[in-house]
Predict the structure.
Amino acid sequence: MRAFLAIIGLTLKNAMRSHVFQLLLLLLLLAVGIIPFSIGGGTAQDFIRVSLLYSICTIVLILALASLWLGCFTMAHDIDSYQLHMVVAKPVSRVVIWLGKWTGVNLINFTLLIISLAVVYGIVMYRYKVDDRFTEAERKAIASEVLLGRRVFLPTMPDFNELTKKALAAKIKESGVISREDQERLYGELYQQISASYSELPPGKVKGWIFENLPDIGNEPLFLRYRPYLGKVSSEDQRLTYLQWIVMRPAGEAVLPSGERVAASEWPQPLSEQPEQVFSGVFGEKIIPAEWKVITPDRKVRIAVSNNDRFDEKHYYQPSDGPKLLLRVCGFEGNYMRMVLVLMIQLALLSGLACAFGSFLTMPTAIFMVASYLLLGSFSALLTDKAFFVSTTWDHIGQGLARLLLLIVIPLQAFDVTELLSTGELIEFSLIGQLFLEYFVLRGVPLFLFGMWMYRRRELGLAVRK
């Protein structure tokens, strides 16, 4: 244990002497102190969201670079500078040395992470509570939409690929045998038509969604989050439009305008008396009171929206944007700590990869290998994303190869939970467990063990001072 602690101490001292690390530390201090105060414009909710998002993303980026640099530096530099020769001359296992260096790097990163995030939390909460630019109504909106952790429920979605295959089979049956190239072209056209028809809402029409497997919400209200687009999703020419949200209430008592209570089967309950004016392309939220009892006995909620645009233009709803139902589970502090846990797993993984490659490679080569490995994981994740459109044979081949690569590589975007935190969405413990098991244990640990094995076998006499 004394040897292990001594290695940690040496690692900390060497890291503090590194000029690159000192530069990264300076950038971290600037990010923590400047970014939360430099955000302006937009609504009160957007101000808090952007302050959190920009500050935390910058901190994570700097600490990720620090993890990569320190891991490779502390492993390769000790060999190249002959410092390790004096250590291994003592009865200390190289595995202990490797673990000590990895632990030392993590201690630095975790300490900086916790301090930085604590400062960001303090600044954001101070501005939320003290800043006189916020009215009391805006503070309530921030507290109910951003500063909490809410579980997200998505509507049941059709399988667009399966629907497209059926439509393509019907076209082929109708038209006869067509070439492979024509099938791929037709598949792409049909996919676009089917997915667009699901997302679009013509003027004067109503579109509905069904949410399944809702829990017992007790006395907690449900929140409905949505973002409509006008014309088309990719259009930047968004403007004010009108819509009205409706929730279907299960059988029970209905209250007539006169105040009389009557027995009723399922009936529509508008969330506003008249169509509301909203800005397209921007997220909006509505509250569904708990006393409405909108969850059916089979644990479903049905909602709908009408397009009341004054210029008779279509509305579009991206599947990734909702509508979503959200249910409060914990406060902001609890959700914030979950994010810290995810970031600690990410930094421990990055430092472990850097130490593993730095165990048997020179520092520049080790940095290049780790960066290439992580970029490969990021690109593979993009190719296998459901939003990535697949139509040609080469697309299918590329996606298949990307799925195989994801069995051994690590996509860093899987650890990006800052968007969830900044929008008040719950960072689930199941997600944290999945990230730890799937990436740290199943992908990271084998590489750590490989690095230790190579470190034990490395011939120190081959290191030549230049």
